Amino acid sequence: MSVPLTLLGLLEREPSHGYDLKRDYDTYFGRGKSLPFGQVYSTLSRLARDGKVVMDEIAAGGGPDRKRYVITDAGATEVNAWLTEPVAAEPHLQSVLFAKVVLALMLDRPAEEYLDTQRRAHLARMRELTEIKRTGGLVDGLLADHGLFHLEADLRWIDTTAARLDALRDQVRS
Amino acid sequence: MTAMLRARSVSLSFGDTPALRGADFLVDTGEIVAIMGPSGSGKSTLLHCLAGILVPDEGEIHVGGERLDTMGEAARSALRRDRFGFVFQFGQLVPELTAAENVALPLLLSGMRRAEAARRADLRMAELGLDGLGGRRSGELSGGQAQRVALARALVAEPEVIFADEPTGSLDSLTGEQVMDLLVGTAREQGTTVVLVTHDARVAAYADREVMVRDGRVTSPVGTS
Q: Which residues span the domain enclosing A161?
């Protein structure tokens, strides 16, 4: 899971303080492993250094929680590229895909299209593995099977999520 | 590549229930395409329209250079018999006939002499590993054997297009793989076009590409040309 890209996605929704970003990250993506404050602010500092966020307010008294972060055009371009590109079709992608789907819904982006793109990427990889099974030996075939079963599980998750997008949109935008 | 099958803005309702709402589809000669989608999305209805089993309310179906949707029933029936082969989920073998007689059936219906039809049926069954099973009726065959007989029947007349609707849906995964290996291997050897409906990604992965049907429309890229 990419913490910088996820924080950028949350910032595209609205300018936010570090505290708000940590709260939303933990709510939607933490799942029992909260993001340390130190990592939130070090990530935001790097994003600011790279021109992907800027600070628009520093209240009197200073301190990291007084700063409000705003995404820049460069940051928004990076979020868009990340959401649009399918993840490499490998097993155990659910957390990355889940983050993309939730952020797409928060940002009113076409989450269903992203899932379709991901489905095509998965099926393309499954075609390659199926061809290996058809033309290779037993060992290659069994290794291909291992990948195929994991990719199939991802696809089932993609289909289930696609069927529940409306309910998820209501939840993350309420 | 030349287009073998093309659907343009095809719509079809069953009573008040729309099954297809302006579906577009294209498959090139020799291509193997999987039609995927959720239950009730219209994927089987699209296959039945492409195969001339159902006639759309609106839109056009073209097979090669011919318009299918405006043909009369007799012409569509002849086209299905002479140019198409079919494999369905449960084989749909004629239970009163032996396996060999089932395989020979499309040849006999096309007017071939009985001895020649039997010879070709035997050859096709041997290619699909069905030696020695020609005398059995469908009730005496395992699910995998019955589906291979159905596949032999679909291939025996060397059709231009094979339509397969959930061809492995009633089989365990290993037997399903054997059936798909045979279907895809033979189709590639002969240059046969295959249109395959499946909800199973592992089956779809045998195709050259897939299209998604959702709410009666083809929502992913409809073709390559």
A: 93-174
